[in-house]
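Long-time lurker. I teach an intro course on protein structure, and each term I like to show students one example going from raw sequence to a predicted 3D structure in token notation. This year I'd like something fresh instead of my usual example. Would anyone be willing to generate the tokens for the chain below so I can use it in lecture? Attribution to the forum is fine with me.
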Amino acid sequence: MRIATWNVNSITARLPRLLAWLESSGTDVLCLQEAKVAEAQFPFDELREAGYEAAVHATGRWNGVAVLSRVGLDDVVKGLPGDPGYEGVQEPRAISATCGPARVWSVYVPNGREVDHPHYAYKLQWFEALRAAVEGDASGSRPFAVMGDYNVAPADEDVYDRAAFEGATHVTPAERAALASLRGAGLSDVVPRPLKYDHPFTYWDYRQLCFPKNRGMRIDLVYGNEPFAKAVTDSYVDREERKGKGASDHAPVVVDLDL
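-- Reply from a regular --
Happy to contribute to a lecture. Here you go:
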């Protein structure tokens, strides 16, 4: 079974590449982030023609998550139970579904913006709600994973230059403590192998030639419970999909499982 996560940064802009990648990669389940469309505009028909069902939680031009599956799509839950909301709005940042033998969450964790910004406090509160929501499945016997854009680099080696992020979000002790709390709930970090260079970065800013210079970050993560982690046979960052015209600024993270 092949499961992947990918922040496509607008499914409308990325649809031709997405369809081509689904066909070439042989992915069974894709957790997708930053759909950036209302659910009514989501390309259900095109994905159905490609053999995929889709569960979507999206409301407009910002955020939006989905699970695409060709091995079944059941028990869909939209949203994060206990979501703290931001400025009175619960944003579409989480969706979960059972796909064949595994249950997956697709998450788009709040960015945080700046350490002294209210969005940063919201980010930490959102992580607390996520931990509470997944605790039961994390300790269960069914393969289970929380996949997506976490907007946190777990360790200093997960950014191209730690000094470049001094005083910024994505690398703070509090954010990394939130990841540690998830691991404490029974999840482990399925670290992918890079297809090039030494570090499995998953995101490269569009600006300042970050991708050609490999100035990246590993912020797209797969956190799986013990049954999930034991079934993993391979995991890698499909860096090739970050290349060329019309690419997302994130690359897919692919996980192969013996399920």
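Some talking points for your students: The chain has a mean pLDDT of 97. The helical segments are 11-25, 44-49, 118-138, 173-184, 226-231.
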